[in-house]
Amino acid sequence: xxxxxxxxxxxVLGVTSVIPLGRGGQKLVAGANLSSDxxxxxxxxxxxxxxxxxLARAKREVDLxxxxxxxxxxxxxxxxxxxxxxxxLVAWLEERLDGQDLGVGFxxxxxxxxxxxxxxxxxxxxxxxxxxKVVHRDLSPGNIRHTSGGxxxxxxxxxxxxxxxxxxTGAFDPGTPGYMSPEHVVDGVHPTAASDLFCLGILAxxxxxxxxxxxxxxxxxxxxxxxxxxxxxxxxxVTTGLSSDQCAFVDRLLKRQVARRFITVDEARRALATx
Amino acid sequence: xxxxLHDTGHNARTxxxxxxxxxxxxxxxxxxxxxxxxxxxxxxxxxxxxxxxLQRAGGEVLLDVGTHAVTLPTTNRLDAxxxxxxxxxARGDLGSAAGRQAHAERVVAxxxxxxxxxxxPTVGIRDPLGPEAQTALDLLDRAQALxxxxxxxxxxxxECWAAGLRLDDFVGQLVQREPQRVFLGVLRxxxxxxxxxxxxxxxxxxxxxxxxxxxRSQVGVLQADFCGLPAVAAGATDLGTGWYLRQRLLxxxxxxxxxxxxxxxxxITHQGLMAVMKRREAEALLRRDAAMSSRLVPGRLPPDNTLxxxxxxxxxAIAVAVGSAGGLTDRVDYLSAxxxxxxxxxxxxxxxxxxxxxxxxQWILPYRSGLADFALAEGL
Lengths: 275, 380
Known about the structure:
The complex is a heterodimer of chains A (275) and B (380).
Chain A (H helix, E strand, L loop, with lengths): L2 H11 L2 E9 L2 E8 L2 E9 L5 H17 L13 E3 L5 E7 L4 E2 L10 H20 L2 E2 L8 E3 L5 E3 L6 E2 L30 H17 L10 H10 L14 H10 L11 H9 L2
Antiparallel strand pairs in A: 1-2, 2-3, 3-5, 4-5, 6-8, 7-10, 8-9
Helix pairs in contact in A: 3-4, 3-7, 4-6
Chain B lengths: L1 E5 L6 H10 L5 E5 L14 H10 L3 E5 L2 H4 L8 H4 L14 H17 L10 E2 L5 H16 L5 E5 L1 H4 L3 H11 L5 E6 L13 H15 L3 E4 L7 H6 L3 E4 L3 H4 L18 E4 L4 E4 H10 L1 H7 L10 H17 L4 H26 L6 H4 L1 H14 L2
Helix pairs in contact in B: 5-6, 8-9, 9-17, 12-13, 15-17
């Protein structure tokens, strides 16, 4: 990533006090100030053999965030800007959330009340995404922020997919091992809204038990086989203190068969409301 | 539990159906575009007149447009079918989005014109994740876009229902279309009854699918007759049947000229065996053990001219008994016990008669095994 292009993006977006927060692949994330607001600056280098796909994905992420304005989905603070023609770099600003990634909190067992709050907030965020006919597809601890105010916020819908549009990623359905749905690993099937609910089930299961329902042990093929062919053990088998209805709720999120699972946020939300 | 009567090419079927509706033997009729013409054809009533008569008798009327049948390579019984004019382009052209859209529009419009809840067109599926399955889902999408209440129809070949995880993946895609009602059917190789070569995995697959779908939708099994009882135990509430073999089973021969109207005319339904038996065998059993015969039929052997109605009444009795046995576990237990009893009775009948044309190995065991596998997998 060229420093001159970064400087140009900073200038165009009008941010100051830029402090790098992290870097991965072709992406740079930095904290910055926009007037008096604290924001996150995201920069993506458009280069290499997948430049076209990378650009399209970045545009899609920004387009999505621009359309979905919801307290449980990270907010967009600027349009996407392109540096160079054809673009060598794209950049945009997002709301800067305090608190910590969900994964940090998984070092202890959560109570039902805490887990319920997580599930409820993420369901609301997913509802906003699914209403736009978008599937997140990578609902993992690194993509959910637990703010200091207690709100859970979905971040980084960069690999989200419009349900009715063709995938930019072809046959490959991305996701984070350990946090994928069976639909992520089946040829001829793509993750859907029901897959996001399965992934939410993984997070709830892990919060309650400190264990993953279908753990990833380093072998992707083995993981895919178990994910597709194994029904996760009931959360009741790995933790105590939950009512049978609470266990049944989490277990239903994690049903291997889509048809046996909650398939819409509405279904899950109605069930959660009774608990 | 509702019994649905499938169409026949017979002119008197409307009168028979009216009697059955009046006597509450059936709750509805599934007309076929292959048997009931849209416009007057020879001495056949047009569909609108048939529908009006049946609806006046309080029956539910549905129309199976048979897209899955007309796309079979051997289908040539098209006199009635062609009166429906379901293809603006070439008949059977589903290869293009425009072709599928045009067909779906005609199919839905024809049913709406008759005031019927539309059944979406579909194609027979071999591989639940293969191109036929995608075509079936695409046709359902188009029908639902035209009428959100469109009924989903899934016609699978036996290997489709036995496809395990791949079947579940297909059903997962289906449920996300949220159809209010789903009909399932098995596209068999022939109209032989009892069906030969049924495997437990196929029965288990239909049971598992029925149970999955019944969580959100009303599920029916079409052209199923006794083969549909495991699905009834799994949660199906509509069972399709009739007296001709092509009402009881779905197979390519039903849509060929002069091959589809074979009737079990000389065969007597034995409710206790969940089977039909040659009259000669049934009479021999009556002579050897009248009490057993009376228990299995039950009652006296019916005369030939009432066999059609007798079959429906006996099928209805066992289907209602299974369907009303209680929750899933109770229904499965009830049918399992009925299969166990029938297995013992078949062995006894074989012992008495020395030989049976067909026995429990065709009528009972594949279904009992499939149901047992389903129960085990469900943790019942």
